[in-house]
Design a protein that fits this description.
This protein is mainly α. It has 24 helices and six strands. The chain folds into two domains: about 375 residues, no CATH class; about 170 residues, no CATH class.
């Protein structure tokens, strides 16, 4: 007996490390194949302790001048001063708290530079490793919640191959660290719910860990607070249910409320939960003055302002559905081949319908299990509450959080655990040994058990198909056929090389660091690919009057040697400017870059 238990335990441990290995390997695959985009450039610059403010405006500059903030000089002597510089720059020039950027600063100091510039693999490998750790964390969360090897392994497997999880982990951003904090916070949360169910006190060490984890979550991303809001909603619902079930012997409603407040408000483990809430709130309020004093919040977050016209009312629903589905499956819907796109869309639709039926059946079955029903409701409540908050922000506060798929990190771990739990009953095969009837009752019971077993075997195959589809989806992401980068400077560079045989000036208006990041993407491609183009760059500062940027462009053009090709990037200028005439050819559209080619003689 003990030998069998040890064997099962050893097998479970092997599976635990297998899922972590698969998840980490997928996240490290083709890590540098995709060009970095604006948000990643912000990570690079601020993690190095540098700033975008050193880039000259309103004059033509070279590639090396534009890429100067990516130089790794600050990593040569990592110190408290360099860390303080990282914290100062990120809190005054960007909109995020500094924890991830400090960790990235320390991490990247372990790697050699790439020809004097930041090493892209080093920058992206940190979130990839954190994504691998999240696979192990989701296993622990599921185990604490359901005490089931099946659910724990299913959750870890789903997390390992999740296309959404891989997409998040292959970007040099802080979202994979935020997912890790969300998972750990939920682990403490479900432990507290278990203690509420058992009327037991919450250990002091666990309460302290919960506060520290929440504080780290706040220091990583402000939207971590939405996860905590979802947790708070569930705790309020549990407290209300306790009040509903409170001793019915109390004669009047008023005396019931008073008695409940006296005897139940601070009963175990609620007292320590309140202490955790106070500690967490304190750790969050530390960042409030920094957030309110940040002058960049408006300009850098304007893109998530809601759209109240036409499709703007229903887009958030489809954007949310897309985020949910791609947490499980994503085939090559962004392939350049239209046939592959259509077939992938059809397969995903069929898969979604079939998987939804399996999940609903498993959910209803697990609700009948008294040991698991509470936690199943808790995780569904977390997922539902978080999305309700998203829609409140979107429709009532005009802040469309559904527009950025990466913000779904708030409920991603809860969603994965909920899916894994819903698949449990589909995976399990009932034992035939429980049938001990004799005589005429044996055959009907055996036949019934055999039929049920065959059904469960079909369920096992269905779950394996789901995991295989997840693995194919992971390959889709790492092959850049799904969750493609928002900006494609590599494609734009290829077009420039084909169209221009003379020196080029690449010009863009400049409002904030976003436009500098856009131009850095182009400059980095030209430098890394050793392009033969003779190129210079112009960031024409626009101070609220579009004519100011156009005037800067005109001044630079008048003082530039001719012939010259002007590439205007996201720049609204006339078709003729300073002896430069727009090229009439129809050129292909490029993600993130609205461009025009001008020939200057």
């Amino acid at each position: 007996m003990y030998k069998n238990q040890n064997s099962a335990s050893d097998f479970s441990v092997r599976l635990f490390w297998l899922w972590i290995s698969i998840g980490t390997c997928l996240r490290l695959t083709n890590l540098t194949a995709k060009p970095p985009w604006i948000d990643e450039f912000a990570t690079f610059v601020f993690s190095l302790g540098n700033t975008f403010q050193t880039v000259p405006l309103d004059k033509a500059i070279t590639i090396d001048t534009l890429l100067q903030p990516l130089q790794t000089n600050a990593l040569a002597s990592v110190s408290l001063a360099s860390i303080n510089q990282v914290i100062h720059n990120i809190t005054t020039q960007d909109t995020h708290p500094p924890l991830y950027f400090v960790l990235a600063h320390l991490w990247m100091s372990l790697f050699k530079s790439d020809d004097g510039l930041l090493n892209l693999w080093a920058a992206r490998s940190l979130p990839a490793v954190l994504g691998g750790l999240s696979v192990g964390a989701i296993y622990i969360l599921s185990r604490v919640a359901f005490r089931s090897n099946i659910i724990s392994n299913l959750a870890a497997a789903l997390m390992a191959v999740s296309p959404y999880g891989i997409f998040i982990s292959q970007e040099a951003r802080h979202y994979s660290l935020a997912i890790l904090w969300v998972t750990l916070s939920l682990t403490c949360f479900v432990f507290a719910v278990r203690r509420i169910e058992e009327n037991k006190s919450l250990p002091i060490w666990l309460a302290a860990c919960w506060v520290v984890i929440n504080a780290c979550g706040f220091a990583t991303h402000y939207f971590f607070s939405l996860t905590l809001a979802a947790e708070a909603i569930i705790l309020v619902c549990i407290k209300w249910y306790e009040f509903y079930l409170f001793d019915n012997k109390v004669k009047t409603k008023q005396s019931k409320i008073i008695t409940f407040l006296i005897y139940k408000t601070f009963s175990p483990p609620w007292g320590k939960i309140y202490a955790v809430a106070i500690g967490t709130l304190t750790s969050g309020l530390i960042w409030l003055p920094i957030f309110l004093q940040n002058k960049n919040t408006g300009s850098l977050t304007a893109w998530i302002q809601g759209d109240r016209s036409g499709m703007g009312w229903i887009n958030p629903i489809f954007q949310s559905l897309a985020a949910w589905i791609t947490m499980i499956v994503l085939l090559p819907v962004e392939s350049p081949n239209l046939v592959i796109v259509i077939l992938s869309g059809l397969v995903m639709l069929i898969f979604f319908i079939c998987a939804l039926r399996i999940l609903l059946s498993g959910y209803n079955s697990l609700l009948k299990d008294t040991k698991s029903s509470l936690m199943l409701r808790v995780f569904f409540g977390l997922f539902f509450s978080a999305n309700a908050i998203f829609f409140i922000f979107t429709y009532f506060l005009n802040i469309d959080l559904t527009r950025g798929a990466r913000y779904a990190f708030v409920y991603f771990p809860a969603f994965i655990v909920f899916i894994a739990a819903s698949l449990k009953t589909t995976w399990e095969i009932p034992s035939l040994s429980s049938s001990n009837s004799v005589g005429k009752e044996i055959n009907p019971q055996i036949n019934k058990a055999v039929a049920k077993s065959e059904s469960q075997l079909a369920g096992k195959k269905a779950i394996l198909i789901i995991l295989i589809m997840g693995l194919l989806s992971g390959v889709t992401v790492v092959s850049n056929l799904g969750y493609q980068k928002y900006y494609r400077p590599d494609l734009l560079m290829s077009i420039m090389e084909k169209q221009s045989q003379v020196p080029v000036l690449i010009a863009s208006p400049q409002f904030n660091l976003v436009q500098i990041g856009e131009m850095m993407g182009i400059a980095r491609e030209l430098k890394v690919k050793k392009s033969p183009l003779q190129s210079s760059f112009l960031l024409a500062h626009e101070d609220g009057n579009p004519q100011s940027a156009i005037k800067s462009l005109s001044n630079v053009l008048e003082n530039s040697a001719k012939p010259l090709d002007l590439w205007a990037i996201n720049f609204a200028i006339p078709d003729k400017i300073s002896n430069c005439v727009v090229d009439g050819k129809q050129l292909p559209a490029i993600n993130g870059y609205g461009y025009k080619l001008y020939h200057c003689q």
